[in-house]
Predict the structure.
Amino acid sequence: MNLQTTGKPVAVVGSGVIGRSWAVVFLRAGCPTALFDTDRAQLERASDWIRSHELEGREHLRVGDSLADAMKGAVYVQECGPEQLPVKQKLFADLDRVASPDSILASSTSAFDMTEIARDVRHPGRCIVAHPVNPPHIVPVVEVLGGERTDPAVVAATREFLHAVGQVPVLLRKHIHGFLLNRLQFALVREAVHLLKSGVTDLDAIDTVVREGLGLRWALLGPFAVADTNSDGGARTYFGGHEEWIMNLMNQLGPTPDFDKALIEGIGQALDAARGETPREDVRAWRDRMVVEIRRLKAENPLRKTQEQPL
Ligand code: NAD
């Protein structure tokens, strides 16, 4: 299984927020891309959205009339259906029946175990999780992991392919609910809610501390690599010199809060007030433009060689 060369046909199943963005990733890399969705109106909206991008390869977008039609010639399939286990199980069983026997079937699932998703599949060796970050055509990390029956050669080929189309695949050795990104994200959100609920501060202060503090460094270096730059002696003296207060602080972090409707409504109201008259769409478009700029600036990077994971 060699997908290293881009330019091979791929298929995207489900054309919502994630599916349409994956299509841009593949077209941009020169892969003829077939898109399919059971909702024809959504499929048309997604196609219009994709064609509205300044993309050299956009003429290679094809809209599938059926699941089987979309699979024609596809060597890699990115499933982007709803995040419901029975739906994904059925979709994978269908994909396995209609896709070419040697094509890879990758799921964008945010949480499910491929062992479960591929339960009813006849060829589970080719089924794999490739979990993107929203939107994948702007944010490159993809969490890659197989199920218990996934062929290791498929894991390697998926990684190579995602790398070749411009993404940054990160391999997980085993399934864990929420994978890496959402576990890290919600560890922070859990403590942020604890701080809000305890009356320590307000939502704006928490967003400011991340936006103007932690986030500036994290966009360049992860939490461990930041620690390595926080002390002249590196992480050993940063962590090592402060282990007592770090342990005390970790022991004081809050328990899991009730993530109830009232709390979520309160967060929504505070965010509406902070955004004022500015449309949310404008903020999102600005965010995506700035992420592209940050990635461009990050090309100048003394750690680039070691940050690029060897394939
Ligand atoms: P979405 O609801 O926007 O899109 C899902 C699409 O799938 C819809 O257009 C729907 O009509 C279509 N669909 C439903 N059943 C189908 C079927 N049988 N065949 C083909 N299409 C079908 O969802 P989304 O946010 O794009 O998420 C898609 C997947 O990506 C989910 O597994 C989700 O967990 C994952 N994901 C989402 C995000 C995010 O932030 N939205 C981030 C990472 C991963």
About this structure: Residues 13-19, 36-39, 42, 80-83, 87, 91, 108-110, 131-132, 134 surround nicotinamide-adenine-dinucleotide (CB under 6 Å). The chain has a mean pLDDT of 94.
